[in-house]
Amino acid sequence: MSQPRSRFLAAAGIGAAALLALAGCSSSNDAGSGGEPAGDQVSIGVLQFVQHPALDAATEGFKTALVDAGIEVVYDDQNAQGEVPNTNTIATTFAGAGHDLVFTVATPAAQAAAQSILDTPVLFTAVTDAEAAGLVDANEAPGANVTGTSDLNPVAEQLALLAEIAPDAETVGIVYSSGEVNSEVQVELAKEAAAELGLTIKEATVSNSAEVQQATQSLGDVDAIYVPTDNTVVSGIAALIQVAEQNGIPVVSGDAGPVENGAIATIGIDYGKLGYQTGEMAVKILQDGADPAEMSVETSNDVELIINLDAAERMGVELPASVTDRADRVIE
């Protein structure tokens, strides 16, 4: 399952033309400028794959940890707008920007930074499986300049929750991005959990968020839909929810963002807290001189059950008391 880091280094192949192609990216500064830190300030490049609530919360949590530690930071914020070529362009620019640290959000962003940035600490968050993504030699001993936090979800618990909400379900649809290794990992875990529950998984893939509606419709006659923490699908979640509501199909997701936007429930991690945890790792590097090569990939066990009562009603689902009674957060 693990892919040696050298494969990515060899496969980098980032063309010089990419340096000139920042038009598809967005940022709070001039692209790749990095700002000019003064005095005790440090410079951090932020590469976020796409904008959606979970990833935005992770970025804000990271920055809050730096504020709480009393570190003054000039940020170079860049968003790849969900386009992998943009992540490569931004990472290449960051490699020559002289930042003290680079913070990446989501697997494609982390992979791009790992390919291009070899002598600056790189921290990632919202990465499901760092070893499978080729980011580290091993979670316990990353071995190079890249480490961070994993958002691996309790997929088996989430499928069990789906079965509890839709006890008559036999077939579960999953829409995911064919270009996100984090999603592939979750789909495999979902298949294992589904087999234990007597469920059949039906898959549809997308290459961008504009394809989410058509892919959801292509699932056809499914009894429920499970949404993994897939950045491409989550950024187009409204289209999936619309199809589900029109056909009375309950939707359970891998994180809170889709529930806040119309899915019925999740047992998920708090991305703000995960980002904060990554920020604490940055503090150890910037203040204490910690070596990323020796900093284990960290995970969060802080999960919560979130339900959306209005979404359940729109999808024609009556949530059992066994679910509503133990919910940590209720959206009405």
Automatic annotation (TrEMBL):
<protein>
    <submittedName>
        <fullName>ABC transport system substrate-binding protein</fullName>
    </submittedName>
</protein>
<keyword id="KW-0732">Signal</keyword>
<dbReference type="InterPro" id="IPR028082">
    <property type="entry name" value="Peripla_BP_I"/>
</dbReference>
<dbReference type="Pfam" id="PF04392">
    <property type="entry name" value="ABC_sub_bind"/>
</dbReference>
<feature type="signal peptide">
    <location>
        <begin position="1"/>
        <end position="31"/>
    </location>
</feature>
<dbReference type="InterPro" id="IPR007487">
    <property type="entry name" value="ABC_transpt-TYRBP-like"/>
</dbReference>
